[in-house]
């Protein structure tokens, strides 16, 4: 396994897209983003797999038991970044990709006895990585370490779909590749919302933006291109088209 410190400032001042797995990712034309740095979180890899400069980030050992994780064995250009304390249990099964695997440690926002550990949300250029509500938080910190700027959030919706379908993930739409669980509880509408709490996600981002006030918009710009609730107003909101026009398309 490689150490994440090897990636420090590897993409200094280069735009990157962080792929969550929210429903709005269903509306993204991935072909427009293939020339950019793509940092996929869990099943976001299904939408980011065409990126020439590709990273995969996961905090959740459960992702190993989904079909999309197996895609990483085929994507030879993809660097795989994993939370050590969870994934070291399956290191022996990652022999084929260990030369492009990077491990990282966490500092936790929700950590007893303090629970709200605000120091755990501060962006730094070193480990440990922010560990909080989901893998997007880790991916954002990692992109900051890599020197990416601006950082564009796509599919980071923090809510269920607003089209009446009540979906949680982009791949629940028929046109998308449908992943499946190889081991464990079968995914369905009864299980899709386990661990999901829109209010707590928004609470997290509020604290994150407060403690990083001296960094955001000054050392790094984070732009929201996701379908977020109205109260999620911590970063400038733009469309993909506006982002590409403002920051320039890859030549």
Task: Put the structure in a nutshell.
The protein is an alpha/beta fold. The protein contains six helices and twelve strands.
Could you explain how this protein is built, in words?
The chain is α/β, with parallel strands linked by helices. It has a single domain, classed as sialyltransferase cstii, chain A (Alpha-Beta Complex). Helix content is 18%, strand content 18%. It is built from 6 helices and 12 strands. The protein has helices spanning 45-48, 67-70, 84-87, 135-145, 198-211, 240-247, and strands at 2-3, 16-19, 37-41, 53-58, 78-83, 101-104, 106-108, 110-111, 115-116, 129-131, 151-154, 222-224. The protein is globular. The model has no long low-confidence stretch (mean pLDDT 91).
